[in-house]
């Protein structure tokens, strides 16, 4: 039989955002909630991305919750297995297991105008109603694989970096690696020693800085465990350094010139071949795309069993992959680089500006969030959207960072979530809050005006930060401290209060009345 339950809050996803929301709900005294997770365990992107070499490019002591410090981080930049273990530890420590609903993939969540709640349907047949929904699926949850002619007929192995096939042995194989983002620069050094040949397809070279990673000594761990304030101080220092860097990204991109020189020196140290060095040197301002960290990437590319193709993958012909060319309409070869491979690995990122979860959210007007956002994502303070009452997202539009830890942004959004729910409690009865169009428009106008001078918009690159219209709907153009101030509390003037129409009233049987709150 299909399950059904009603809860105060339904949280979607169990990565950092979802588990953080669950912890905050419990700390606020709310225990009537569930966490719906499509997989069989918690962890989000740190569960799904288990490729060889997977690690974080944010220092460990900054990439953890302030309310759940971890004195036992083994390295300054932690690997995937340690971060996933940390999230499992959070779930246990804060008593979240009873709230978890694993293997509950949400297929649709629909707002009920009459009952003022969300009806959530899951792939396993479960139906859940919730007064409020916190969507914490994250932007790095659904892999993006390009539509390549001939790919369906490739006789070898094909998978995305976020869906790594651990049963497939790459030893002695000829491998095509597609993409040069944060995943690819970790994968290539990990597979290069065992693969017979690695062919890297690079549409645009990334800027790569040395990764100053090291083991954290037992003495350091003992100190942080014995004197927790030392761990807090370490985290504060890491945060402060990154806050000071923000103005170079957001207001004065030319200040990044020195950093660019360091990155060029990093290339020169490892790449002696002038032709290869030219391929790997970006033509855009550093910071326009995310600056990547690796001390192993360039040395791996310099090995004799690695080839760099300075183009994307354009076609697959049988077991041959083609870059920089293809086949013309008359069947004549376009002169691209052709390579025989046994496996194709896509490191081509995720659906960030077109998050698939948006297609499953149906609001008060009967349209999906994807339809509402067809002209570009926008949300009030990165959390709420017009026409979607009592629904908020964690890591929503324009909450991403280019140089610091997303956990800082998540915790700020959890503050906003907590106050949102407090406001509903104060209103009493069956009530909902709907973001005003004027408030959303004003907020996003300010964000986009500030975005105009940032390196992400002026640096001369095309990145995953930009949507199909060229708008930067991904990154926050300020410091994390600014964002925390902006999301400290809910301003009711930015919302409309929605209540159920009383039986027999003029509104009976119609859409709920909306009260303006001054």
Automatic annotation (TrEMBL):
SUPFAM superfamilies: FAD/NAD(P)-binding domain. GO terms for molecular function: flavin adenine dinucleotide binding; N,N-dimethylaniline monooxygenase activity; NADP binding. InterPro entries: FAD-bind_Monooxygenase_sf (IPR051209), FAD/NAD-bd_sf (IPR036188), Flavin_mOase-like (IPR020946). Keywords: FAD, Flavoprotein, Monooxygenase, NADP, Oxidoreductase. The keyword Disulfide bond does not apply. The keyword Flavoprotein applies. Its cofactor is FAD. Pfam families: FMO-like. Belongs to the FAD-binding monooxygenase family. Catalyzes a Baeyer-Villiger oxidation reaction, i.e. the insertion of an oxygen atom into a carbon-carbon bond adjacent to a carbonyl, which converts ketones to esters or lactones using NADPH and/or NADH as an electron donor. Thus, can convert bicyclo[3.2.0]hept-2-en-6-one into the oxidative lactone products 2-oxabicyclo[3.3.0]oct-6-en-3-one and 3-oxabicyclo[3.3.0]oct-6-en-2-one. Is also able to catalyze the sulfoxidation of methyl phenyl sulfide (thioanisole). This is Baeyer-Villiger monooxygenase.
């Amino acid at each position: 039989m299909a399950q059904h339950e009603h809860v105060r809050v339904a949280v979607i996803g169990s990565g950092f955002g979802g588990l953080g929301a669950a912890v905050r709900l419990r700390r606020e005294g709310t225990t009537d909630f569930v966490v719906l997770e499509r997989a069989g365990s918690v962890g989000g992107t740190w569960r799904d991305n288990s490729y060889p070499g997977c690690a974080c490019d944010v220092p460990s002591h900054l990439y953890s919750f302030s309310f759940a410090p971890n004195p036992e981080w083994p390295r300054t930049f932690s690997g995937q297995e340690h971060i996933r273990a940390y999230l499992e530890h959070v779930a246990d420590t804060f008593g979240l297991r009873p709230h978890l609903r694993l293997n509950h993939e949400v297929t649709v969540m629909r707002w009920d105008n009459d009952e003022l709640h969300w009806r959530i349907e899951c792939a396993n047949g479960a139906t859940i109603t919730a007064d409020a929904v916190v969507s914490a699926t994250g932007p790095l949850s659904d892999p993006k694989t390009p539509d390549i002619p001939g790919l369906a007929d490739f006789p070898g192995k094909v998978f995305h970096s976020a869906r790594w096939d651990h049963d497939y042995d790459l030893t002695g194989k000829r491998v095509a690696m597609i993409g040069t983002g944060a995943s690819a620069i970790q994968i290539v050094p990990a597979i290069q020693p065992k693969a017979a040949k690695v062919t890297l397809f690079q549409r645009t070279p990334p800027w790569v800085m040395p990764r100053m990673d090291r083991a954290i000594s037992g003495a350091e761990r003992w100190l942080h465990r014995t004197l927790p304030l030392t761990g807090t101080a370490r985290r504060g220092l890491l945060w402060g350094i990154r806050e000071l860097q923000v103005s170079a990204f957001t207001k004065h991109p030319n200040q990044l010139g020195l950093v660019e020189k360091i990155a060029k020196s990093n290339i020169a140290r490892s790449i002696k071949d002038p032709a290869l060095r030219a391929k790997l040197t970006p033509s855009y301002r550093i910071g326009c795309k995310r600056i990547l960290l690796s001390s192993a990437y360039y040395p791996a590319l310099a090995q004799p069993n690695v080839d760099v193709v300075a183009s994307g993958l354009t076609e697959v012909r049988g077991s041959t992959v083609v870059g920089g060319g293809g086949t013309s309409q008359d069947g004549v070869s376009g002169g691209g680089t052709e390579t025989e491979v046994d496996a194709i690995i896509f490191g081509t990122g995720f659906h960030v500006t077109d998050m698939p979860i948006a297609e499953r959210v149906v609001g008060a007007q009967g349209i999906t969030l994807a339809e509402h956002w067809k002209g570009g994502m926008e949300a009030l303070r990165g959390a709420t959207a017009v026409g979607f009452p009592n629904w908020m997202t964690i890591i929503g539009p324009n909450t991403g960072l280019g140089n610091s830890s997303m956990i800082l942004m998540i915790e700020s959004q959890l503050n906003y979530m907590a106050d949102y729910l407090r406001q509903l409690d104060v209103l009493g009865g069956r009530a909902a809050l709907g973001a005003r169009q004027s408030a959303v428009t004003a907020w996003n106008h300010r964000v986009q005006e500030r975005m105009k001078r940032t390196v992400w918009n002026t640096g001369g690159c095309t990145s995953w930060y930009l949507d199909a219209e060229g708008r930067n709907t991904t990154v926050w153009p300020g410091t994390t401290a600014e964002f925390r101030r902006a999301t400290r509390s809910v301003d009711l003037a930015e919302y409309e209060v929605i209540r159920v129409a009383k039986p027999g009233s003029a509104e009976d049987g119609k859409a709920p009345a909306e009260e303006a709150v001054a």
